[in-house]
């Protein structure tokens, strides 16, 4: 299995998760990569992704795992990047013996949220006991305390760096941004957000998937 | 994506009068777009009818409709092309013109405004929309679209005016210039095998209506069903060679990564080397895990072997009419035995879903013919019980309302009234209340408008304009169709609908007669008379029936 890290930016950030998956699979075919198929009645490509990005959010670190043979990680990366639209270009790849089940082990993402204004106030969230936001679930808007899903917030030049839960316990970055806008009067848009890295549990805290697999 | 930065002397925007998902599925647009971009010095970009929310946003920002590739305003192109595919898209012309900032009528556009030309299947009778355009391209776009672009570049370089350009354009076969009112001859590619066909195509990032690669086996149709416009509009019959097609198929699979390839034509089972190319392509397709799709397989030549190899567990049949008598009237040359054998064969191959397509409101139709539709449904159920390999069978029956279209033997026929349509639909609704059978039907009112626009003349242009003013847009999407907008427009413009959708006198000069389509009026009329006697005309693969199309180019070369 080869895992490639790729971007999702430019126009491609407006392409849904499902459509992106189809774009990636077609690219594998164009790149003539010998991908394994499931053995079911309707065979499908054995490819794996992690938690979907909300539409409009960019990423520097999407991971796409492909069960394939006859190709090493270097030539895979080259063929992959040549075949995908520019917004999905790959920048790193690794061959692994066993499927690490990234969707399961990724527990957080680091986001860069481009924003202006008095951002220091946002850090008060970290010292409060709860942080209740409105989330829409199956068409219904409910209040939910997501304080435990916010791992870190940092104010940097030009915006905020946030580490939010991803995966089974998930805090959608777009819902989080909406709550910031409401509470602090910020005018952040979904497309001001970039997923910078996806994180897994390391020995001494969270480490990036790349570090984990290297 | 074609190179948008290459040296460019002439830039064209190809607009499509429906949404992206529909337009990107259109093989004609695909051919013309890539053809022009492959020509030295020319660039072609695209624009589609934006959805209503996008249109609202454009208006709010005071922004004009633009091209997808370089986001240029449409009005800033050298030439603007419009592909018009369907009568119920006509209100999208004023819609897109307004968003783009193009004055609706050609006569109201200044001399220095880029020429706006139309093309597509609706050009068979361009009159209802002709006043909106500077020129209409009729026939194979590989010729007309190429020549009009080349001519316009030449005129631009020589500093000629738009009216001089249009005058010169009338010398091209298949170009009709409304302001001049010239007669013209439909443009025909003489050797389809040599014609341009794109194999390195755009692959959309989102799901489109026909999300697959397509090769066109041949153009035209030998069957001569009397209601079918495409059959006569695309004649003479011209095939591509088998090895050309296999080459195209392989290149498309490699270049696109699509997991489905469609072998397309008006009647795929009539392709003379079908078995040969299916075998040839299948090997390549299997190796790439690509599924083959063969649409338009006809009932009478249902080839179980090919079918089994390429298809899943559903089968689509279009007997069009319920009884043999009516099938003879419309010249759908399939007999009861053919239907029986095909369905039996399908059942033996374990087909689970059967889709049946019929038309209602055909000339001479009675309730007995509708009962024939019901009988076919019972036949499917019976054959499934006796021979079926699958446990369950689902049958979907769809009926469309017959539209008497120009350039068919039925161009003189009347269209049935809305009341008659409703009666027929109610009859079937009642009789098709059968377990595992679903009946769906097309709107009656929209069929009236479709017939009106299909046979209308230039007095319909203000009706289209007025209907749009009333709110009509995207009429082909049933959720957007509002009959009352059209009724108001028709009333305001003082149009007698019956004049166009009623029976036409046989010595009438039709407004679409200005185009020489090869197929003669005398032939169409003779076919009409034969239909009334229930006499069929055999398909013309073996022997020419003398329809006249071969005057424009040889059949079967």
User: Mind telling me the CATH superfamily name of the domain at 8-185 in chain B?
Assistant: Cobalamin-binding domain
The main pleated sheet of chain A reads as: 9 strands, mixed
Number of helices of chain B: 19
Biggest sheet details of chain B: 6 strands, mixed
CATH class of the domain at 8-185 in chain B reads Alpha Beta
Contiguous uncertain segments of 5+ residues of chain A: none
Oligomer: heterodimer
Tell me the fraction of residues in β-strands of chain B, as a range. 5-15%
Shape estimate of chain A: elongated
Secondary structure: number of strands of chain B: 17
Please give a structural write-up:
The complex is a heterodimer of chains A (214) and B (557). Chain A has 214 residues and is of the alpha+beta class. Chain A folds into 2 domains: 2-100, Alpha-Beta Plaits (2-Layer Sandwich), CATH 3.30.70; 107-213. Chain A has helices at residues 17-30, 73-83, 102-105, 124-127, 173-184, 209-213, and strands spanning 2-8, 34-35, 47-48, 58-66, 68-69, 90-95, 106-114, 132-137, 140-145, 150-156, 159-165, 193-202, 205-208. In chain A, strands 1, 3, 4, 6, 7, 10, 11, 12 and 13 form a 9-stranded mixed sheet that branches. In chain A, strands 2-5 form a two-stranded antiparallel ribbon. A two-stranded antiparallel sheet of chain A has the order 8-9. The longest helix of chain A is centred in the first third of the chain and has 14 residues, at 17-30. Chain A is elongated, with a radius of gyration of 18 Å. The two termini of chain A are 14 Å apart. Chain B is α/β, with parallel strands linked by helices. In chain B, α13 runs parallel beside α14. Chain A binds chain B through residues 12, 15-16, 19-20, 22-23, 25-30, 32, 37, 43, 83, 85, and chain B through 203, 205-207, 254-259, 288-289.
